[in-house]
């Protein structure tokens, strides 16, 4: 699923680039995995203090799986690429010579946005790359399979990134289908049972990002410690950072469904929520109306809608395009039209139930006459 999602996003991006140009694919590495990062005051500069194409650790994390995907696009060495995608080991001179128009940074998941931001910063510290960007000759694009809401905001504010493409929203405490009181109780439990040895003290994972997204390849460090602590006597859900094989078989590609009735009720559509709970609408009509209700309630973006409904941004785009084609919304700016509000009003109507007010009886029935 992750591999397919990333591949589709990369291929979609490739179709947008001008004919005859190239783009280089780079796996996003953690700063801690680059030699020399532990030196005080040291700041890495891509293609100067390290090369993005340097061999990675013999025991890689998720960047190993991403590297295998990139190899499918670029081949095994620079100069022998089968398509427009350049190998990560391509040097700066060849990037210029081969008319590279984009650095495409690839990762499977971003929970806090910190790693993406730091890696992009390493690229723009290179004077030539910084110059290319200032002239508009090159863009830095991040392609991720899943990104949390907090990571999306951080990456969007990062001046080193020009564009972010995401296949699916990653759930977190912020976007979980909980009430405020339920979220407060969950956070209290996570902090109460956090191991005392943890220096952060939050118990909510790296940088307090409180992630709820895991992959069969591993458990990210922004998942609350209560779920992955290896302290003695603690019955954890995950085996540290390892996703247990029995859970892989049991959960598979599980994705929780949103309570759409609650979503539209939070969008000040109480009567429409009752129609949802009564089972009046079926998919995809229910999702279409939920998108319309969210847009009509407050200022929205495709990303916000994706996280509220737990669907991909691609699906959100399809629903918005359909609503725009029906005349229910405008896309620029994203607003509900008068026809859209009329449709919401019409959808609130519940089906009338007619009854003869007959009283039931458990006595046997015998006909009294023949016609």
TrEMBL record:
InterPro entries: PRTase-CE, wHTH-PRTase_assoc. This is Uncharacterized protein. It holds the Pfam family wHTH-PRTase_assc. Residues 289-371 form the PRTase associated wHTH domain. The lineage of its organism: Bacteria, Bacillati, Actinomycetota, Actinomycetes, Pseudonocardiales. Residues 96-238 form the PRTase-CE domain. It comes from Actinophytocola oryzae.
